[in-house]
């Protein structure tokens, strides 16, 4: 699903320099819990913080390249797409990120603001 930028509420998460490389950070907004990662490439990725298999906290998982491994059962999740890698199945929601003046922002759909 493609969401236009004007349909997002931008929430300041953290200063970019405060993010450790390949280490997750939990961000909460209106009942949503997001795992935010700064990859070794410097790229930012944000996904739903709970594994679809056993609800493991993905911000606590091990990051390798563009994947995070669930700390409970080692499910491998592709950070850009949110897809659980085969032979396992499932997916998690992904979130748009942006960097402005040294701060990281996460885009949440405006409809969630009403639901939250």
Automatic annotation (TrEMBL):
The keyword Cell membrane does not apply. Residues 11-106 form the Rieske domain. GO terms for biological process: nitrate assimilation. Transmembrane segments: none annotated. One of its GO terms (molecular function) is monooxygenase activity. Gene3D superfamilies: Rieske [2Fe-2S] iron-sulphur domain. Keywords: 2Fe-2S, Iron, Iron-sulfur, Metal-binding, Nitrate assimilation, Oxidoreductase. PANTHER family: 3-PHENYLPROPIONATE_CINNAMIC ACID DIOXYGENASE FERREDOXIN SUBUNIT (PTHR21496:SF23), FERREDOXIN-RELATED (PTHR21496). NCBIfam families: nirD_assim_sml. This is Nitrite reductase (NAD(P)H) small subunit. It comes from Paenibacillus athensensis.
């Amino acid at each position: 699903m493609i969401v236009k930028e004007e349909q997002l509420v931008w929430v300041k998460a953290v200063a970019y320099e405060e993010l450790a490389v390949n280490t997750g950070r939990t961000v909460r907004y209106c009942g949503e819990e997001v795992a935010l990662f700064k990859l070794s490439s410097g790229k930012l990725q944000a996904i739903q913080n709970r594994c679809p298999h056993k609800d493991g906290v993905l911000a606590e998982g091990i990051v390798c390249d563009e994947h995070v491994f669930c700390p409970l059962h080692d499910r491998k999740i592709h950070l850009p797409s949110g897809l659980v890698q085969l032979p396992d199945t499932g997916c998690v929601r992904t979130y748009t990120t942006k960097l402005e003046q040294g701060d990281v922002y996460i885009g949440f759909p405006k409809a969630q603001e009403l639901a939250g």
